Amino acid sequence: MDNNAVEVVGYVAMAILVVSFIPRELRWVRIINFIGCVLFVIYGILLGWKYPLIISNGIIAIIQCYHLLSKKKAATTENH
Predict the structure, then answer these.
(1) What is the extent of the structural domain holding 29?
(2) pTM of the predicted model over 0.85
(3) How many domains, the chain?
(4) Angle at Cα 56 formed by Cα 21 and Cα 22, nearest 5°?
(5) Looking at residue 25, what is its pLDDT?
């Protein structure tokens, strides 16, 4: 992949991460933030396996997934 395309991935990841803090509903913050983190993981890989980017954003993406899935599970349990 050429350097311009890799840079575009980085800018898109950055923009999505910043936008993730705009919604008032925490669920949407987590979903958008998760997408930004996944893009940053991809960006870190495209840059040549930059582990600080990959590890930090990977962990945050896992945390966001955990919270999203635990909230969904709790909502499902409450409805029954």
Answers:
(1) 3-78
(2) yes
(3) 1
(4) 5
(5) 96
